[in-house]
C-alpha cells in the first residue's frame, strides 16, 4: 500500500480540463483523489513541495526503442523505463523491432511484464504489423492486443507493400488501434545517410530526398481514406509532410502525426564534421523544414512530440558516418529540448506543450492518463520550466550515450515523476 501523496502549491497545468491554476494535488490508491485549491494532508501522507514548479499529467512518449529482447547490452526495458522516468515520462510505447521481433503474444507479454517488474515508467508494447517485420504476412493483431499491445508498427522500416498496409488498416479497425508507419520509400532513400541538399553535396555524402518520406505519407493518408482506418505517421521531418497531413485532416481522414524533439531543434548543419550523433532516419532537414514542423505543432496538424529514443553501442556510432547506425537517445533530454526550442521562443504555450506531450498521446493511442481529472490514474510530472542545466550524457540512466546534445545548455527539467501515485524519480542535484 502506497501512502497518499500530496503535491503542494504547484502550477497545475492540465489542458484536458482547461486547468491552469496554482493549487494542490492529492493522489491516493493509485488515483487522483482531489485536484485544485488547498488540500489538507491526510494522515500518513507524503508531501512534495511544488512551489514555483509545474504539475502536469504524466508525459507519454509513444515512440521509443528499448532493445529488449535481443540487445540488452545496449538498453533493457528496465534501463529504458528508468531513463523515461528521469526525463519526466510516466509512460512509453516500445517499438517492436527487437530481436526476435515483437510480433506475437508471448513477446508482447514479455515486454509488458519486464516493464511492470522494473517499476519506473509504464511500458506499453507495440506489436509488429508483419510477421518478423518482413512485410509479407500480417501478424496476429488480436492476440497481441490481448497480451497488451496498444498499436502496431514495423518501425525501423516502412510497410512497402501497399496491399499489406491497406489490410493492416482494415484489420486494426477491429481492435481500435492505430497503424503506425515509418514513412520511407526505401528505393528512393537507398544508400542515403543525411538530408539531400547543399550540405550533403559539400560533405560528399549521399542524400535522402524529402520525397522519400512524403510519398509514403500521402500513400498512407489515401489508404486511411479508403479504409476508414487510423494511420499514425512517425517522426515527420519535412515541410511537405506537414502540408500533406494538414490536407488529410481537412478531408476528415483519420490521420495523426508525430514529430521528434531533434527535428524541431536541429538542422542538417549538425552533420558538419561528420558527427554520427546527428545521424538519424529520417535525417535532420533544413531550417525551412524545422519552421514548418513548428508551425504544424502550433496549429495542431502535428499531434504529438516524441523522442524516437534509439540507444546504440558506443563502438557502433564510432564508425564512418555513412556506415554508422541511425538514431539517438532522447528520453532524458526531450523535455528540456522542447521547453528550450518550443516554449521559451513562444512557439507553444505551456498548456499546448503539456497537451502535445501528455494529453494527446493518451488520446491518440487510447492510453490511460493524460489528465489530472479526479479518479484518473495517478501519473504526474512535476517539472521546472526555468531550470537551466547542462546535458551530461555520463549521467544518463539510459545505457545509450549517443546524443547530439552533450554539453548543451537547456532550460526545463523534470523534478519529480509519479507513476500510480508512487514517486519513481526525483531529481537530486
Ligand atoms: Zn522510424
Ligand atoms: Zn523509431
Q: What report would you give on this structure?
A:
The protein has two domains: 5-55 and 377-426, Urease, subunit C, domain 1, CATH 2.30.40.10; 58-364, TIM Barrel, CATH 3.20.20. Helices cover 30% and strands 23% of the residues. The protein contains 13 helices and 18 strands. It has helices spanning 77-86, 105-118, 141-146, 162-175, 186-189, 198-203, 211-227, 239-250, 261-265, 287-299, 314-317, 334-343, 350-364; strands at residues 5-14, 19-28, 31-35, 46-49, 54-57, 59-64, 89-94, 122-125, 152-153, 179-181, 194-195, 207-208, 231-233, 255-260, 304-306, 380-390, 409-419, 422-426. The strands form four sheets. Strands 1, 2, 3, 4, 5, 16, 17 and 18 form an eight-stranded mixed sheet that branches. It has a five-stranded parallel sheet with strand order 9-10-13-14-15. The chain starts with a strand and ends with a strand. Bound molecules: zinc ion (2 copies). The site of one zinc ion (ZN) has 5 residues, from loops.
Short description:
The protein is α/β, with parallel strands linked by helices and 429 residues long. Helices cover 30% and strands 23% of the residues.
Keywords:
globular, 30% helix, binds zinc ion, 2 domains, TIM Barrel, alpha/beta, Urease, subunit C, domain 1, eight-stranded mixed sheet, 429 residues, five-stranded parallel sheet
Small-molecule components bound: zinc ion
Overall number of structural domains:
2
**Overall geometry:** globular
- CATH-derived architecture of the largest domain: Alpha-Beta Barrel
Q: Largest sheet, described in full?
A: 8 strands, mixed
Number of helices: 13
The CATH homologous superfamily of the largest domain:
Metal-dependent hydrolases
Amino acid at each position: 500500500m502506497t501512502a497518499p501523496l500530496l503535491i503542494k502549491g504547484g502550477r497545475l497545468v492540465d489542458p484536458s480540463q482547461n486547468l491552469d491554476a496554482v493549487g494542490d494535488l492529492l493522489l491516493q490508491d493509485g488515483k487522483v483523489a482531489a485536484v485544485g485549491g488547498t488540500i489538507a494532508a491526510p494522515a500518513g501522507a507524503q508531501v512534495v513541495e511544488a512551489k514555483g514548479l509545474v504539475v502536469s499529467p504524466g508525459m507519454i512518449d509513444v515512440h521509443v526503442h528499448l532493445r529488449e529482447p535481443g540487445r540488452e547490452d545496449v538498453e533493457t526495458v528496465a534501463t529504458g523505463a528508468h531513463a523515461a522516468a528521469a526525463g519526466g515520462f510516466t509512460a512509453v510505447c516500445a517499438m517492436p523491432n527487437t530481436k526476435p521481433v515483437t510480433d506475437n503474444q508471448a513477446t508482447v507479454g514479455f515486454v509488458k511484464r519486464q516493464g511492470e517488474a522494473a517499476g519506473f515508467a509504464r511500458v506499453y508494447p507495440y506489436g509488429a504489423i508483419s510477421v518478423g517485420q518482413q512485410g509479407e504476412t500480417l501478424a496476429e493483431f488480436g492476440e497481441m492486443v490481448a497480451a497488451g499491445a496498444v498499436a502496431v508498427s514495423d518501425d525501423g522500416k516502412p510497410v512497402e507493400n501497399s496491399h499489406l498496409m491497406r489490410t493492416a488498416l482494415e484489420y486494426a479497425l477491429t481492435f481500435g488501434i492505430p497503424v503506425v508507419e515509418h514513412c520511407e520509400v526505401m528505393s528512393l532513400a537507398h544508400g542515403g545517410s543525411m538530408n539531400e541538399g547543399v550540405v550533403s553535396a559539400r560533405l560528399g555524402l549521399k542524400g535522402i530526398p524529402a520525397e522519400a518520406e512524403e510519398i509514403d505519407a500521402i500513400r498512407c493518408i489515401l489508404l486511411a481514406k479508403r479504409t476508414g482506418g487510423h494511420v499514425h505517421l512517425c517522426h515527420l521531418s519535412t515541410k511537405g509532410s506537414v502540408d500533406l497531413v494538414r490536407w488529410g485532416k481537412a478531408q476528415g481522414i483519420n490521420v495523426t502525426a508525430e514529430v521528434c524533439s531533434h527535428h524541431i531543434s536541429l538542422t542538417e548543419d549538425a552533420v558538419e564534421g561528420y558527427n554520427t550523433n546527428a545521424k538519424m532516419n529520417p535525417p535532420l532537414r533544413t531550417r525551412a523544414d524545422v519552421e514548418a514542423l513548428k508551425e504544424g505543432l502550433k496549429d495542431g496538424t502535428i499531434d504529438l512530440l516524441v523522442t524516437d529514443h534509439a540507444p546504440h553501442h558506443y563502438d557502433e556510432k564510432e564508425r564512418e558516418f555513412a556506415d554508422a547506425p541511425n538514431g539517438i537517445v532522447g528520453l532524458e533530454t526531450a523535455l528540456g529540448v522542447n521547453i528550450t526550442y518550443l516554449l521559451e521562443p513562444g512557439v507553444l504555450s505551456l498548456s499546448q506543450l503539456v497537451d502535445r506531450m501528455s494529453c494527446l498521446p493518451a488520446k491518440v493511442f487510447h492510453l490511460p492518463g493524460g489528465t489530472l481529472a479526479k479518479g484518473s490514474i495517478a501519473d504526474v510530472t512535476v517539472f521546472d520550466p526555468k531550470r537551466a542545466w547542462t546535458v551530461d550524457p555520463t549521467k544518463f540512466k539510459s545505457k545509450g550515450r549517443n546524443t547530439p546534445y552533450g554539453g548543451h545548455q537547456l532550460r526545463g527539467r523534470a523534478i519529480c515523476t509519479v507513476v500510480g501515485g508512487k514517486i519513481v524519480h526525483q531529481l537530486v542535484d
